[in-house]
Amino acid sequence: MTNLKLFTLIFTSTVYITGAFASETIYPVVTYKCDVDADIITLTNSLLIGDAGAAFNYSDAEGTYSPWNLLEIDRSTTRTRIVKTKKIKKTCSLSSGDYTVTIEPEVFNRNLSGTCGASISSAFTVNHYNVIIKQRTPFEDDCRSNAPIITRVTVFGKTSKVKIKRIARSKFY
């Protein structure tokens, strides 16, 4: 009987938390940091929820970006759709040379009223001396699968290696 009560409590808490979370707006944040002293470049992919996201000040100077700010959207009376995407290119000089990181939106549906249209993520590319060392990689493969989501990318200047950290989708959202 005690196990049943415990299960009921955990299930009810999970449903409540999930329901509360689902009703709030989610704001994606990509953070870029060039740390010359540590000889690394770091990209992080995270979410802000509700008021914290609405009030967040994305800033190129701080290296924080929203994929929504990299879109040109046509809002006609019949539909709302994405007509153009933009890219951000950041350059960092590490011990083994110059790296360029490109950040761009990962659009799941150009029709914002369609399936996954209200969802967006980002993608990145890493170049070293104009040679692609990590091809365009989305942080999230699509808006519905259970595929792991990339939360951190680290580029090491000493070795030119790119390390990617993924977590389960259920732990991200």
Q: Can you walk me through this structure?
A:
Residues 1-21 have low confidence and may be disordered. This protein has helices at 2-22, 51-54, 169-172; strands spanning 26-35, 40-49, 64-65, 71-75, 80-85, 88-94, 97-107, 120-128, 131-138, 149-156, 162-167. It has one domain. Helix content is 17%, strand content 47%. Strand 6 and strand 7 form a beta hairpin. Strands 3-1-2-10-11 form a five-stranded antiparallel sheet. The protein has a four-stranded antiparallel sheet with strand order 6-7-8-9, with no helix packed on it. A two-stranded antiparallel sheet has the order 4-5. It is of the alpha+beta class and 173 residues long. The protein contains three helices and eleven strands.
For this entry, give a set of tags.
173 residues, four-stranded antiparallel β-sheet, 17% helix, alpha+beta, globular
Proportion of helical residues: 10-25%
Q: Mean pLDDT, rounded to whole units?
A: 87
What is the string of SSEs from the N terminus onward?
HEEHEEEEEEEEEH
Structurally, how many domains make up the residues? Answer: 1
* Largest sheet report: 5 strands, antiparallel
User: Distance between termini?
Assistant: 32 Å
Q: Per DSSP, what share of the residues sits in E-state strands of 2 or more residues?
A: over 45%
Q: What's the count of strands?
A: 11
pLDDT < 50 stretches: 1-21
In short:
The protein has one domain (26-172).
List the helices and strands and how they pair.
Elements: H1 2-22, E1 26-35, E2 40-49, H2 51-54, E3 64-65, E4 71-75, E5 80-85, E6 88-94, E7 97-107, E8 120-128, E9 131-138, E10 149-156, E11 162-167, H3 169-172
Antiparallel strand pairs: 1-2, 1-3, 2-10, 4-5, 6-7, 7-8, 8-9, 10-11
